[in-house]
């Protein structure tokens, strides 16, 4: 559990959870559309969660953005199931307090690990890319996990239908939807796959599914080619 005061904020572009020296934010689609920022095997998930950390040698974000590896972002697909994700309720139950741009609420610290697919953390992809929001600095080591986090339809709807990009007193309130960037070319970037990524074995010792055909992984300026696959 990161020490200090945690806050959840609607900044008009996303819902951002500030946790000590790092942040966690979300990208989603609409009530009938998916909105993850990456795609895997051409599949776009309903939502994506990013946990952002800064390299400790940098005193501030401005300096970190000048370092090609200044930031580490962990990306997690979010998919839906019928039951509520109880640890995720630490966030979803507070969303009504940040429905409008500029609103913030305190959150009691909890283990971030409780949100993650902790039994599948060895299945991931990694590449060097950029922020997906301005200033789109190419300063990020991306790690995108293959196995999604599962939340309920109700929890997803709290994001897609009950969060607004405008202030509460605006003449016309606008739902905050589709806050993801579209897929971009890779421009020669290489994506590495962990040894366990999509290499689950069947009973006979053979792969239970074909090798992963890499879909497009979106960054602000860069994507991912389906031909790029190395192992780490």
From TrEMBL:
Record EC number: 4.2.1.1
Record keywords: Lyase, Metal-binding, Zinc
Cofactor(s) required for function per UniProt: Zn(2+)
InterPro entries with a match to the protein in the record: CA_dom, CA_dom_sf, Carbonic_anhydrase_a-class, Carbonic_anhydrase_a-class_CS
PROSITE patterns registered for this protein in UniProt: ALPHA_CA_1, ALPHA_CA_2
Domain of life: Eukaryota
GO CC annotations, alphabetized: plasma membrane
EC class name: lyase
GO MF annotations, alphabetized: carbonate dehydratase activity; zinc ion binding
Alpha-carbonic anhydrase domain boundaries: 1-195
Reaction(s) this enzyme catalyzes, per UniProt: hydrogencarbonate + H(+) = CO2 + H2O
Protein family (similarity comment): Belongs to the alpha-carbonic anhydrase family.
Task of the protein: Reversible hydration of carbon dioxide.
Protein name: Carbonic anhydrase
Organism from which the protein derives: Neogobius melanostomus
